[in-house]
Design a protein that fits this description.
With about 400 residues, the chain is α/β, with parallel strands linked by helices. About 40% of the residues lie in helices and about 15% in strands. It is built from 14 helices and twelve strands.
Length: about 400
């Protein structure tokens, strides 16, 4: 297995030397400056590649191995294969990526909002901070800040009472912070930042789109792009929903093993693969992570390894240390290593330590939520320890 690290580019606060010092060899990156929906050019991709792979004298080489992500425009999620111009632009971006020699692309199909958290710096007992999803704070936003059409029907009486109390206790600054956390797109998001009125409008645009229709749109997208991916030698890896359940009354179609099975049955192309994210899938108690890895082993070309801890209400959770929480990382890595040993050298699974606590010196620095250097360094070191014990290093 190849050790990766997500890098947000030359203006990020974690430089490439930090990737080297963490012990990673492979970089996971994207063209974050390109607007969603515009086709990437080969020149843009090769310029970014040169930033990563031009090795200064005396430094360890790095390889840009995974594109995370080429965002899928909202029109594709709402219209499926009918969004022809958007899909053609996406294929053009994939061609540019393949032209630069990169063969793994991660993407997601979450409508309106990407990965979602209510708190970005929740203080944990060590004094470090973690990202958190607080169900009551989320409901307070949905019911009383966004005031979504039909939201009242999605919560029990007790849910609404708790959310009302949470909202009543919030200051204007806290409301603004919560709104930013949920609506303004977290780092790496593949959806656009939204004002509250724009958020409501975007949700209304999904009226009549249920899980079956959204899945059909995803299948239509895959049927359009996988022939090109096969021809280019590219593996497409679908990231799970985060969290893996409906938000804002919207359907989600990459939350369970059955969701992935339906997609692989509909589009059996070997180019149609999975980004195996233990943190996202692990939020659901009914997701058996080792079993999912075993079942879809041949489809896993990229892995996000992190752990989450479900809280007492069963819906709230926070990001735990990589070897804590609800993910049995030893069992997961046993499955991934067993699959990886069957593969040719050029097809080995690339993984990265996903997210990390804000800790030590990073507590006093401006860092991207979920992507501080030190917390991810700890996570990669812990994962590497398991791999060493399994004889995989």
């Amino acid at each position: 297995m190849r050790q990766g690290w997500r890098w947000y580019g030359p203006h990020a606060n974690v430089p490439l030397d930090a990737v080297r010092q963490a012990g990673a060899t492979d970089v996971v990156s994207s063209l974050h400056h390109v607007p969603i929906g515009r086709a990437w050019t080969l020149a843009e991709v090769t310029d970014h590649l040169a930033l990563i792979e031009t090795t200064p004298p005396g430094r360890s080489p790095l390889t840009w191995s995974v594109v995370e992500s080429i965002p899928i425009p909202d029109a594709v999620k709402r219209q499926g294969a009918a969004a022809r111009s958007e899909i053609e632009a996406w294929i053009a971006s994939m061609e540019a990526v393949a032209g630069a020699g990169i063969q793994v692309i991660c993407y997601n199909f979450m409508p309106v909002v990407d990965w979602t958290r209510t708190d970005l710096d929740h203080v944990i007992p060590t004094g470090a901070t973690a990202m958190r999803f607080d169900q009551d704070r989320f409901a307070a936003f949905d019911l009383f800040i966004l005031a979504r059409d039909g939201a009242d029907q999605d919560y029990s009486v007790a849910d609404k009472e708790r959310a009302r109390a949470v909202h009543a206790a919030m200051s204007d600054a806290e409301i603004a912070e919560l709104t930013t956390n949920i609506a303004s797109a977290l780092p790496g998001s593949t959806t656009e930042p939204l004002t509250i009125p724009a958020f409501r409008d975007r949700l209304r645009a999904y009226a009549g789109i249920d899980a079956a229709k959204l899945r059909a749109h995803l299948v239509g997208f895959l049927q359009a792009v996988t022939p090109a991916a096969e021809a280019l030698g590219v593996k497409l890896t679908l990231h799970p929903d985060d969290p893996p359940r409906s938000l804002f009354g919207l359907p989600r179609v990459a939350s369970t093993a059955n969701d992935y099975a339906a997609l692989f049955d509909a589009v059996p192309s070997p180019a149609n693969g999975m980004c195996y994210c233990t943190g996202s899938l692990g939020v659901r108690a009914d997701n058996d992570l080792p079993a999912i890895a075993r079942r879809f082993a041949s489809r896993i070309h990229f892995a996000h390894l992190r752990a989450t801890k479900r809280e007492g209400d069963g819906r709230s959770f926070h990001e735990s240390a990589h070897l804590e929480g609800d993910v049995d990382m030893l069992a997961v890595l046993r499955e991934l290593v067993a699959e990886d040993r069957k593969r040719a050298a050029g097809e080995t699974i690339i993984f990265r330590p996903d997210h990390g606590h804000r800790m030590l010196d990073d507590l006093t620095k401006q860092v991207s939520p979920g992507y501080p250097a030190i917390g991810r360094l700890r996570g990669l070191a812990e994962l590497r320890g398991i791999l060493y014990a399994l004889g995989a290093l």
